[in-house]
Design goal:
- The complex is a heterodimer of chains A (about 290) and B (about 325).
- Chain A is mainly α.
- Chain A has one domain: ABC transporter involved in vitamin B12 uptake, BtuC (Orthogonal Bundle), CATH 1.10.3470.
- Chain A is built from 12 helices and 2 strands, in the order H-H-H-H-E-E-H-H-H-H-H-H-H-H.
- In chain A, a hairpin with a 4-residue loop joins strand 1 and strand 2.
- Chain B has about 325 residues and is an all-alpha fold.
- Classes of the chains: A mainly alpha (about 290), B mainly alpha (about 325).
- At the A-B interface, helix 4, helix 10 and helix 12 of A face helix 5, helix 11 and helix 13 of B.
């Protein structure tokens, strides 16, 4: 395999992985930046997305596309009572309490999924048009990777428009900058929090489904990959969309490159990158100044 | 005195559960590990989920000491404590200038990198097969480590009681007050002229010593050292133990570790996933309704015990 081919593979897989990391992590970044909550249960949303898709496809015999939409909506709906009745209770409390409450939630979700599906890996059966590859002339590229990349970019652009240009986005950014002032101008922060939380959960579900070939669905998924998502948020800086994107791209490509070139060191490379970035810039690449708590 | 109570309870356990000494010893060792986390997190407010790095380093150090230098256990304990201190100093250089989520992530990253290094260095650490074939010679030349674990149990228990006595004095001292001041408001401490970074480094390295000693104990009593001693799981478990028992006083560790391990033992014989539900619910309920931990269920008569070491504001 020549060098160009290798580099192209790394780039393709790396960017695809980055898109998945971004889609899942962006919700975490928002809840951290907006509600100042460390939500260790966030990985559970990605996991639920995958598992609900599988369940709906198998039990109700609906096509893949319908199942995906149903899973995303279902995950968003599930997240609402979680936020309103449990997580809301720890806003403003110290990070440790928040982390522990949400880890507890993650444990319960993991146990619940396991009791239904068993401990093995479950696979999402992709429709025929996502298998195989697309011929671009100079070489052919696997379809599913391309779809993930396009999906990720579409989500990024859509999110950007939403946050920067819509009325909701304005209120969101106001509440991130200064919740008290936002409330003083009659922005309903409670409603904002719930909607953002559900949106983050929905995106995580989408990312989980899209990434199921790279991060396979198993009951321990929620906590196993949580470290990755937390890393993206910490490296990017919380509360910043573009920060998460940048961090996901950097970490995704470094991880994939080392997996190709020096597979024994890929985990070290990932965490060493995180170490280096945070040592040099504790607030994350695009985080606000001063290491935020 | 708590130390006396601890000895008495420990002795009782020895006679009531003579067949479960392995589990009892693990509980004692974990209690020491969680005690060191209680010092670092509960007293000084350093939110680390990578404390296993110090524990595992102590375990490997004591294991390697027994394999290559001498099988004498007390020097092995010193080796473990020293290793814990050194790794704590190294990670402290990285962690202690940050706070909040950044500190948490850095602690995780540091421990993960250490884990991977230990994984790769098969020649030294045995990789994921672990370090085995350790032998430990009799404690003080007299007490042989027997198959039933009796010596191991008493050895660990005594180390725990002595450590608790030491740590309690440390926490009740002016230095302990400094730590709690830093925990409650770093800026204020700086403003009144406290050397925050130096104090944090001191308490963190001290925590490292005791975590390393706990690791050494596990290496010596189990006579095997596994990669899981450096794992994120280990750090997270210790944190849960601490929180359940009571983060803000040292004695919380004495309750949290045994409760967690006993529940784990009972629940996981049923099914590992029943365990997760139980611990998940326990966490949720503790955080929502008993944020200061189970120790606050102790009736007011023992108030002196739980309040003397400072409460969370």
């Amino acid at each position: 395999m020549n060098l160009v081919s290798l580099l192209l593979n790394i780039l393709l897989d790396g960017v695809a992985y980055a898109m998945i990391l971004f889609m899942i992590s962006v919700g975490l970044s928002i809840s951290l930046g907006l509600m100042r909550v460390v939500n260790m249960a966030h990985g559970a949303f990605a996991m639920l997305g995958g598992y609900i898709t599988i369940a709906v496809m198998n039990q109700m015999k609906v096509p893949f596309e319908v199942a995906v939409i149903a899973a995303i909506v279902a995950t968003a709906i599930i997240s609402i009572p979680l936020e309103t009745f449990l997580i809301r209770k720890v806003y403003g409390r110290n990070e440790l309490d928040q982390a522990l409450l949400t880890i507890g939630i993650a444990f319960v979700v993991i146990a619940g999924v396991n009791s239904v599906t068993g401990a093995n890996i479950s696979v999402i059966k992709l429709p025929y048009y996502l298998n195989g590859s697309i011929d671009l002339g100079f070489r052919s590229l696997p379809t599913d990777r391309l779809v993930v990349i396009v999906l990720g970019l579409v989500v990024t652009v859509a999110l950007w428009f939403f946050v920067e240009r819509s009325a909701f986005g304005v209120k969101l950014r106001a509440a991130v900058d200064n919740a008290a002032m936002a409330e003083a101008v009659k922005i309903n922060t409670s409603r904002l929090y719930v909607i953002s939380f559900a949106l983050g959960a929905a995106l995580a579900a989408l990312g989980g489904i899209a990434g199921a070939s790279l991060l396979p669905m198993e009951p321990t998924y929620a906590l196993k990959y949580l470290v990755l998502f937390l890393a993206v948020v910490a490296v990017g800086g919380h509360g910043t969309l573009f920060g998460s994107f940048l961090a996901a791209v950097i970490l995704g490509i470094i991880d994939t490159a080392t997996k190709y070139l020096a597979p024994e060191y890929s985990s070290i490379a990932f965490f060493a990158t995180m170490l280096i970035v945070l040592a040099v810039r504790p607030q994350g690449l695009l985080g606000a100044n001063g290491a935020k708590s | 005195m708590v130390e006396l109570a601890l000895l008495i309870v420990g002795a009782l356990a020895f006679f009531v559960f003579p067949d479960d000494l392995g589990l009892m010893t693990s509980i004692v060792i974990m209690t020491l590990f969680v005690l060191s986390l209680s010092l670092v997190l509960g007293q000084a407010g350093i939110p680390t989920i990578g404390h296993a790095a110090l524990y595992g380093s102590g375990a490997y150090a004591a294991g390697l000491w027994a394999l290559h230098v001498t099988a004498e256990p007390l020097t092995g304990l010193a080796a473990g404590g020293l290793a814990g201190a050194i790794i704590a100093a190294l990670s402290g250089l990285l962690l202690l200038r940050t706070r909040g989520l950044t500190l948490v992530m850095l602690s995780i990253a540091f421990a993960q990198v250490l884990f991977e290094i230990a994984n790769k260095a098969r020649g030294v650490t045995g990789g994921d097969d672990g370090l085995s074939g350790l032998t430990v010679s009799p404690v003080l030349g007299i007490f042989r480590f027997d198959f039933y674990g009796r010596t191991g149990y008493w050895y660990s228990l005594i180390v725990l009681v002595l450590s608790y006595a030491l740590l309690r004095r440390l926490v009740a001292s002016p230095f302990g007050l400094t730590c709690r001041g830093i925990r409650s408001d770093k800026t204020r401490m700086l403003a009144i002229g406290g050397h925050v970074y130096g104090a944090l480094m001191t308490v963190y390295v001290t925590g490292g010593v005791f975590a390393g000693i706990a690791g050494a104990l596990t290496a010596q009593t189990a006579q095997v050292v596994g990669l899981n001693s450096l794992s994120f799981q280990q750090s997270a478990d210790a944190l849960v133990m601490l929180v359940i028992g009571g983060t803000w006083t040292l004695a919380g560790a004495l309750i949290g570790a045994p409760v967690f391990m006993v529940v784990h033992h009972i629940a996981s014989t049923a099914s590992p996933y029943h365990w997760l539900v139980v611990i998940g619910l326990l966490l949720i309920l503790t955080v929502l309704y008993l944020p200061k931990g189970l120790i606050y269920l102790i009736p007011a008569g023992l108030e002196r015990l739980r309040d003397r070491q400072g409460t969370h504001e």
